[in-house]
Specification:
single chain, Aspartate Aminotransferase, domain 1, Aspartate Aminotransferase, domain 2, seven-stranded mixed β-sheet, four-stranded antiparallel β-sheet
């Protein structure tokens, strides 16, 4: 009798991102800024001092210190992961048991549900309002109705580009103080409603941060979780001992210390996104081509359109990669030239 995969693995398919070469990549919400030669040289010097025959620092103390100083949070409340994905996996796999219920929201980052189901945690999905916003009181009631032990969502939201204000998030947290709230603030660098400064007030909250967006280190898999001392100690105990390699730690430490550089990149990304949003709105006024262009407090624009598949393919044919969903497209803001190329292609598509 041949070996058979168990039921939770048998229908899984590997993650399938856009592959191949495209002149412009506006599909993954990455920063459009590569590191300068001087920063690369600085990183190279740090890497040259690594003892490659030794295991890395298992607690990633140097990058955690740099992160804590950048965001003004206590070091002892921060743990590091191999990207936010690993931290999501650790949290859903270790803070919940098989059969527990966790609530996510729709639409949101797909990996929340993926990891929960992989660890046999029951997932109940709260449906957002028709305009893709969250009604805090309805979400609170839904969590209580389902007897949930946890709630996970991104704010601002990927993929909708919408944000829930701090007062509403606070009401959710304080109304569900008997369950674990996992709040993904991957895109909060682009907005002004962070819960991170208030993390010490709560013993039931984990805030996730990433280096892949505003920090511009998508190639270096590194993320952070910020929570109470009790939760942080549990995460540090549950993760694999050497989950962040020495090369990644050196790179992240150097870049997180570049506060002025990071601030300038963030401000430019925000300005570029606002300009891209305005240009898309202007095009929509001329052609009436989209059902809705959503407000954005992120580094991307989310658009509802019946022509999502056709626009997506047209862009690929013009060597521009964007992201498509059923009935929607998502466009990351690139640099000024990339955004201009995208708008020219979009104008060409609708003017034909």
């Amino acid at each position: 009798m041949s070996y058979k995969l168990n039921k939770k693995l048998v229908n899984l398919v590997p993650y399938d991102p856009i592959t191949g070469h495209y002149d412009i990549r506006l599909d993954a919400n990455e920063s459009c800024f590569n590191l300068s030669d001087s920063l690369k040289a600085k990183i190279g010097k740090s890497i040259s001092q690594i003892d490659f025959n030794r295991y890395p620092d298992c607690l990633a103390k140097a990058p955690i210190k740099a992160f804590a100083e950048l965001y003004n949070v206590p070091e002892e409340l921060v743990s590091a992961g191999n990207g936010s994905d690993e931290l999501i996996s650790i949290i859903t796999g270790c803070f919940f048991e098989a059969g527990d219920t966790i609530v996510n929201v729709s639409n949101d980052f797909s990996m929340y549900e993926f990891y929960a189901q992989l660890y046999e945690v029951n997932v109940e999905t709260y449906q957002k309002e028709a305009d893709l916003t969250i009604n805090p009181d309805k979400l609170i009631a839904f969590c209580k109705e389902k007897g949930a032990k946890g709630l996970i969502f991104s704010n601002p939201c990927n993929p909708t580009s919408l944000g829930l204000d701090k007062a509403s998030v606070t009401r959710i947290i304080e109304s569900l103080d008997d369950m674990l709230i996992i709040l993904d603030e991957a895109y909060m660098d682009f907005w002004d409603q962070p819960m991170l400064p208030d993390i010490e007030k709560y013993d039931n909250v984990i805030i996730l941060k990433t280096c892949s967006k505003a920090i511009g280190l998508a190639a270096v898999r590194f993320g952070f979780a910020v929570a109470s001392r009790t939760i942080t100690n549990a995460i540090r105990a549950a993760k694999s001992p050497y989950n962040n390699d020495s090369v990644a730690q050196a790179i992240v430490t150097e870049i997180l210390s570049e506060k002025k550089y990071l601030r300038e990149c963030r401000d430019t990304l925000i300005a570029n996104t606002k300009k891209l949003y305005s240009e898309i709105m202007e095009l929509n006024e001329r052609y009436g081509c989209f059902e809705k262009v959503y407000d954005t407090c992120t580094n991307f624009v989310f658009i509802k359109t019946a022509e999502a598949e056709k626009i997506y393919q047209f862009m690929l044919d013009n060597s521009i990669a964007i992201r498509k969903f059923k009935g929607f497209i998502r466009v990351t803001s690139g640099n000024a030239e990339e955004n201009s190329r995208f708008m020219q292609a979009l104008e060409k598509y609708f003017s034909k």
